[in-house]
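Lecture notes, continued. The same structure-token format from the folding unit now serves as the input rather than the output. Read the line below as a description of shape only.
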């Protein structure tokens, strides 16, 4: 792992999101996935990432 966040890739952020989700940390997973989504150029891919890691603090009803 690198010490400079500017060197992190989309794959790094998604890997972190998967780890946080597996560790029961859904909000951290969401934040990491959101950063990954910001870094991709394809809007469809960004939507897909966001759909996989929705904001757990959003009240959906």
């Amino acid at each position: 792992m690198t010490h400079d966040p500017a060197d992190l890739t989309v794959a790094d952020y998604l890997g972190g999101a998967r780890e946080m989700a597996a560790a029961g940390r859904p909000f951290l997973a969401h934040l990491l996935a959101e950063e990954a989504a910001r870094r991709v150029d394809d809007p469809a891919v960004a939507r897909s990432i966001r759909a996989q890691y929705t904001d757990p603090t959003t009240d959906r009803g």
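Point for the exam: The chain has a mean pLDDT of 91.
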